[in-house]
Please model this.
Amino acid sequence: MTSGSATGAGCTATKLGYPAVTNFNGVKVVFSQSEPDNASFRAAETKSMRDEAAKQGADLLYANANKDPQKQIADTKDLITKGAKMIIVAPLNSDGLQPAWDAAAKVPVVTLTAWCRRPRARTT
Model:
């Protein structure tokens, strides 16, 4: 969640039509974890998200799918309805999360530890 400018082709929110988030103070940010925090790297990932959210003043909305892709989709959709302005996802399988991406509409999505092969469709 570190604020700043992304670099590289296609890496900017404004180029894709998403609203820029430059000040996270009070902003609702979703972090959707895919696996239980008993895996040390997942625990570290979750801790770093919580620490950075606190540092930035963001309101972190957290959910853990516990290795269930359908739960991750449902959790993400639910947290979007709570006013999220950014979604950060550590997906178990990013290809299966298209329903969550579709629900996100104009909310920027960042994936961690996984590559999304299917581009997210934009709605107008």
